[in-house]
Amino acid sequence: MMLKPNWFLILLILLLALLPLSESRFYIFLGTDILIMGLFAVSLNLLLGYTGLVSFGQAAYFGIGAYTCALLMKKAAVVFPVAFVAAAFMGMIGALIIGFFCIRLTKIYFSMLTLAFSQIVWAIVFKWNSLTGGDTGLIGINFPKYLDSSTRFYYFTLAVVVISFYFLRKVVDSPFGRILATIRENPERTEFIGINVKRFQLIAFMVSGFFAGISGALFGIFNHSLFPDLLYWPMSAEVLIMSILGGMYSFFGPVVGAAVILYLRMLVTSYTQYWPLIMGTILALLLFFFPGGIVGFLKSQRPFAGGKR
Amino acid sequence: MNLPDPSFLIIQSLSGLTYAMFLFLIASGLSLIFGILRVLNFAHGSLYMVGAYLTYSFVSLFINAPGQFWWAVISASLAVALIGGFIERFFLSRLYIREELSQLLFTYALVLIIGDFAKVIWGTGQLSISRPPILKGAVQIFGQYFPEYNIFIILLGLGIAFLFWLILNRTRWGRVIRAAALDREMLGSLGINVSWLFTLVFIIGAWLAGLGGALVAPIAAIVPGMDVEIIINVFIVVVIGGLGSFWGTLLGALVLGQVISFGILILPRLAIVFIYVLMAVVLIIRPWGLLGKPLQR
Amino acid sequence: MILNVEKVKKSFDGFVAVNGVSLAIKKGEICSIIGPNGAGKTTLFNLITGHLPANEGKLVFKGIDITHLPPHQICRLGMGRSFQRTNIFPRLTVFQNIQAAVLVHLGKSFNFFQPVDSFFREETQAIIEKVGLKEYGETVSGSLSYGFQKQLELGIALASEPELLLLDEPTAGMSAKETHQTMELIGRITREKGLTLLFTEHDMEVVFSISERIMVLHQGRLIAEGSPEEVRSNSDVQKIYLGETR
Q1: In a domain, C230, yes or no
Q2: Under an 8 A CB cutoff, do A287 and B119 touch?
Q3: Is B167 helix (H, G, I), strand (E, B) or coil?
Q4: Does A104 touch chain C (CB under 8 A)?
Q5: Residue ranges of chain B with per-residue pLDDT less than 70
Q6: Strand order through the sheet with C196-200
């Protein structure tokens, strides 16, 4: 029961695979960044766009994954594959614990609690100097063996992200994914078709945390250093904006949003320090004129050949 | 660990009380806006910051005028009120038909935009102004010195709290506002122009934030980032006290003021974690805060 | 007895919404609960379906004590419900709305890896036709007219193949023609599937035309119960409804 071959996607993957041939460090760097943040944004969107849970604290699982992988490698001399998997599972466990408490609440209270937990994680990382290096950060995170160049790491990231997207796409298109959508639309009604809504929300949290943890682990190695402010709430806000900018009711929307934001940021910050002003303006324009995000807008202009939902 | 002597504790407590008053001013504006408009205004801290910056600018405007500081405070807070009204009337109101997330994100966009505008206009350095001549001194309390200005803030804060209580409970407009918090749709059928009511509420909320910023100008560092720093604490205040509850906001502000004031002393390393843990615990055990209304199922 | 409600009481902050109500419903019966606004009808429904916890009393469904069960478990035991304000999944199509309920009922909700669109197409289509929405399968449900949305809601409730169906004001807001069509549809389905039906209504014509037994609620208490003729001639009932049209 394979998905119909989606030619557009295949072409895109091909192009991405050929990217390093351009020999441009800039594009390899940007490409890796977009892939990592794209995965992060899609992990959030599983909660936001698919389940209707507005989480302000996605950075928590990202950070947990990042620090888990980096610390295991640096301080416990654990090999990368193990550290990497551990990061994913720690992200998942973090989401399980935090989600358990948060799903008892709704709407703004839910969001505020996700924010509170995320800030707790940040504060712990920030203050636990001996373990995490606190404000001065964790530096000197090297590329793991066999992946010791930007190009090799790029290919690794591409592979991980493509596999993750494949998996997530399957989940989202499955009966489980459909139930998440009904929970988003009307949790009360979903309950009375016989679904334990909280259990489904918790599973969504865990899947989301798992992939956020993966993206965090990749991030740490990619940047060769980690600082607590990747756990501070503007990071959660930024990934939220990426999802909505790209289009939260589509699977790849968040990736589009990530690409746009990262590219624009790179462009803008080379001319001016007022990137927040630009981002704020884009966000405002988005809210007023393009409520469906970029993908939503494109879909309304012409039928999209390619099966993106 | 030596037990600090009582007079020191009292001063520390009064400092906490002073900070609590600022929190109360801003939080009550936020709470009011949330109660009636159902919008959690992320940009409330930004309005506070603009109030402080404007006070700095107006102080130089009114130079050599008698009571220059007070004129600056009044002008700055009114200016912020007008800015708030402008934002609500021409932008925020267009988002009311959309989901709450859109409104929330718009206020966040404002945080980004206003934050950078402030940098453009006033630069990134730290600014300061001095306290008004009439309140430059300090009083002795149990042998320790405590600034007169802070005492003024404490009294003013309590005075404003009392004034608001009077307005909310004893005047027609107060009743309208309380009714709006309960049932917005009904109000329209009572012949009240709900759209202008919303603008008015936002203006009042903004004015409170601007006033807070204006009054804090002489005793705090006027610097980029003060918007973000205060809004997080304001959120904690309304969570503890209860979103939309007037007394809850005051209580929450008093509690957090003391927690911050003493937390830094007792557990300097863990104080910052503790604040967020407190917020989480309240949300888990009693999401509607100490004095809010329990959520309807 | 398919449903037993025993001395159930529910109060909110001191206000008693349901005050010691007891009733029993036989399998296959068509019963209605009537009463003025605020009598506690919707609250009683919410207690039966588990959306609200009862302060006192006991609820037994098909011999099982459901007093403390959560709504999703009660649903799985064989209870279906429609809500007063239309409760559908607005951004999903009509087909997807009903298919979701079928998925759950037939136990496939924990399937993570197969594409959902291929599941139970025939069963879903059958239900769509049964509730009269044959051509609207691919329509986004949020864009349907009010009447059609109510029909969809009925479809969702039916997809779980309930034995007891609770309908909260199924013809609210409908024209006379729509009301007639809806009640005809409901009546037909009920008879076909041998369902037990319990509904609340304000439209007295509907109530008296289809009910086998009527229960009258007033200020949280059950004040009368019986066949349509008995209830119609009950003086207490007449006192309450004096002045009530429609």
Answers
A1: yes
A2: no
A3: helix
A4: no
A5: 1-4, 184, 293-297
A6: C79-82, C164-168, C196-200, C30-34, C213-218, C221-226
- Give the distance, in angstroms, between the CA of residue C47 and the centroid of all CA atoms in the same chain: 13
Minimal CA–CA distance to C40: which of C52, C28, C25, C57?
C52
Q: How confident is the model at residue A306 (pLDDT cuts 50, 70, 90)?
A: very low
> ipTM of this model?
0.86
pLDDT of residue A302: 66
The vertex-B145 CA angle with B140 and B150, nearest 5°, equals 100
Query: How many CB atoms are located within 10 Å of the residue C194 CB?
Result: 9
Where in the sequence is the domain holding C100, given as residue range(s)? Answer: 3-241
Q: Is the pLDDT of residue A4 over 80?
A: no
State whether B284 and A117 contact (CB < 8 Å).
Answer: no
| Measured CA distances, C23 to A135, B222, C8, C31, C147 (Å) | 66, 69, 9, 11, 31
Tokens encoding B2:
């030596």
Cβ–Cβ below 8 Å for C100 and A193:
yes
Task: Give the span between the Cα atoms of B271 and C165, in whole angstroms.
Answer: 55
Per residue in A27-70, pLDDT (tens digit) is 888 999 999 999 999 999 999 999 999 999 999 999 999 999 99
Number of compact structural domains in chain C = 1
From the list A176, A182, A186, the residue facing C112 with the nearest CB is: A176
pLDDT of residue B237: 93
- Tokens encoding C38: 């605020």
User: Tokens for B269?
Assistant: 């390393």
Distance from CA of B71 to the nearest CA of A (A): 31
DSSP string, C176-194: HHHHHHHHHHHHHHHHHHT
Question: Over the Cα atoms of chain B, what is R_g?
Answer: 19
Tokens linked to A234: 């503007």
**pLDDT tens digits, one per residue of A209-231:** 999 999 999 999 999 989 998 99
SS3 annotation, C130-145: HCCCHHHCCCEHHHCC
What is the spatial distance between Cα A153 and Cα A161, in angstroms, rounded to a whole number?
12
Structure tokens at C184: 């005809």
Q: What is the pTM of this model?
A: 0.89
Can you give the CATH number for the domain in which C158 is found? 3.40.50.300
Contact A179/C at CB under 8 A? yes
Edge-to-edge strand list for the sheet holding C15-25: C15-25, C3-12, C56-61, C64-65
Which are the contacts of A77, defined by CB distance < 8 A and separation ≥ 6? none
C-alpha closest to that of A176 among A145, A199, A152, A142: A199
The residues that bridge with B121 in the sheet, in sequence order, are: none
Q: Helix B226-241 crosses helix B246-266 at what angle (to 10 degrees)?
A: 120
Of C114, C116, C111, C153, the C-alpha closest to C132 is: C153
